[in-house]
Amino acid sequence: MAHVPAAERRPQLIKAAIDFMTREGVAAGSTRAIAAELGVAQATVHYTFGTKEGLYRAVMEQLTQDLITQVEQAAPADAGFEETAGTLAAALWRTVREQPASHQLLAELTHFALRTPALSEALESHYRRVTEVTARLVTEAAARTGQPLAQPAETIARFFLAGFDGLTMQHLSLPDEESEHTCLQAFVSAVVAMAGGRLELVSVPAS
């Protein structure tokens, strides 16, 4: 078999791990199983990532980056603060509706990392990153629209992410399209009110 450079093999292994664990679950994601998914030797996985935890860390980073990229691309350039919040929430919710397996895998990895000391840094990095990106989007929207923030952007970001995690878990466990959209609108309204906006129902585009 022709030699494949590590820089090229790494994304192939990450994709194979995501595909396998999405289908079989995190508990089944051994280095042997993931190597078999791609059709390479188990030693290739260890050479590329060092340990199984190293591979899991890379998977978490990839899933996080994929979600962040989709939301950043949806950020409006000239909308008001409330409309921006609604648009960003709708974009993120669309990933839940269209890619539930990715969110389920990320949730599984999160709970696995809570009990795995070798992944504690990866878990902290994941939450720190999504919080920083969310806070930046809130700050940019506020600055662009002249909206003074009643709370620090990071506090608003943490509140938003905490509520969104709950809505996501409800969707994965007991989906209800009509109820979910109503809850999403009410939730985004609460986020806008917390930021210092008007206390009224914010329109969230349907997914």
UniProtKB/TrEMBL annotation:
Residues 30-49 bind DNA. GO terms for molecular function: DNA-binding transcription factor activity; transcription cis-regulatory region binding. Gene3D superfamilies: Homeodomain-like, Tetracycline Repressor, domain 2. Keywords: DNA-binding, Transcription, Transcription regulation. Residues 7-67 form the HTH tetR-type domain. Pfam families: TetR_C_31, TetR_N. PANTHER family: HTH-TYPE TRANSCRIPTIONAL REGULATOR BETI, HTH-TYPE TRANSCRIPTIONAL REGULATOR RUTR. This is HTH tetR-type domain-containing protein.
